[in-house]
UniProtKB/TrEMBL annotation:
EC assignment: 2.8.2.-
GO function terms (MF aspect): transferase activity
Top-level enzyme category: transferase
Protein name (database record): Sulfotransferase
Taxonomic classification: Bacteria, Pseudomonadati, Pseudomonadota, Gammaproteobacteria, Lysobacterales
UniProt keywords, alphabetically: Transferase
The keyword rRNA-binding is assigned to this record: no
SUPFAM superfamilies: P-loop containing nucleoside triphosphate hydrolases (SSF52540)
């Protein structure tokens, strides 16, 4: 049976690691944290463009075969799963490419209130005060205001992903796109995961939401951000007070376009 590919994308700190950990309980599935394929895809796409003097010998069909081959070669015999979920925020900017290469592939974009995303990053930075983070290029300076600004600008970790999400949401290739709210995933994981299975056309697997396992300690430590991909053993809502100054938190309060049906012209499924 040919391996099937789906894609996890969307906003950072919005449940993609938790979603991957849950899906990986299914022995037929493989899902992990963000990997190298998104960057490799963009690099190869650029190398096959007109800036390469040999591009006159390359047809679109050859480009498609080479780009699709990245997935088959990366997820080779080391991975036994029939269904692979590749995670990368770049996939929201590649909806047309994915539609052409994987017509049956689905893109699940994880979303969360942007204020709480900024808050989540700031909490990690403060928790690891003696370890400058790769999120800010290992620079130890700055304030909560400059960090929020850096995250939210168009090239920042949050701003780029947010703009990519809007590109996918308002684009013309939304048939294979679903938005999964972090709030739904942690408060009602059974409903959230059932919706994912329905969206990808698979039979529901009896997941154990009381015993979630995922490890990425080595990666997080090297990134100077221990806890970046840490998840609790049990899926649950964890109430707490924001560590952000009130004006920073309020700045992003209205950046939740997916909650307004009037702003969903293509009727993208939002769970």
């Amino acid at each position: 049976m040919e391996r099937r590919f789906h894609f996890i994308s969307g906003l950072p700190r919005s449940g993609s690691t938790l979603l991957s950990a849950i899906l990986s309980q299914n022995p037929r599935f493989y899902a992990g944290m963000s990997g190298p394929l998104g960057g490799a895809f963009n690099t190869l796409l650029g190398d096959l463009s007109g800036r390469n003097e040999y591009s006159v010998f390359i047809t679109d069909e050859q480009r498609k075969r080479m780009l699709k081959g990245l997935f088959g070669n990366y997820y080779g015999s080391e991975y036994e799963a029939e269904v692979v979920f590749d995670t990368n925020r770049v996939w929201c900017t590649r909806m047309r490419h994915l539609k052409e290469l994987f017509p049956q592939g689905k893109v699940i974009a994880c979303v969360r209130h942007v204020s709480w995303i900024i808050d989540s990053v700031e909490q990690l930075i403060r928790k690891n005060a003696f370890q400058p983070s790769s999120i800010f290029n290992y620079q130890p300076g700055g304030t909560v205001y400059s960090r929020a600004e850096g995250l939210a600008n168009g090239d920042g970790m949050v701003g780029y992903a947010y703009n990519a999400l809007k590109e996918a949401f308002y684009g013309q290739d939304t048939a294979n796109l679903m938005l999964l709210r972090y709030e739904t995933l942690v408060s009602d994981p059974a409903r959230a995961i059932a919706a994912v299975y329905d969206f990808i056309g698979e039979r529901v697997y009896p997941h154990d939401f009381e015993n979630i396992r995922y490890q990425a300690e080595e990666f997080d430590l090297r990134a100077g951000t221990p806890g970046l991909h840490t998840i609790g053993k049990k899926v649950a809502v964890r109430e707490r007070t924001s560590v952000l100054p009130p004006d920073v938190f309020r700045r992003f309060e209205n950046d939740v376009f997916w909650l307004d049906p009037a702003l969903n012209p293509h009727h993208v499924r939002v769970i």
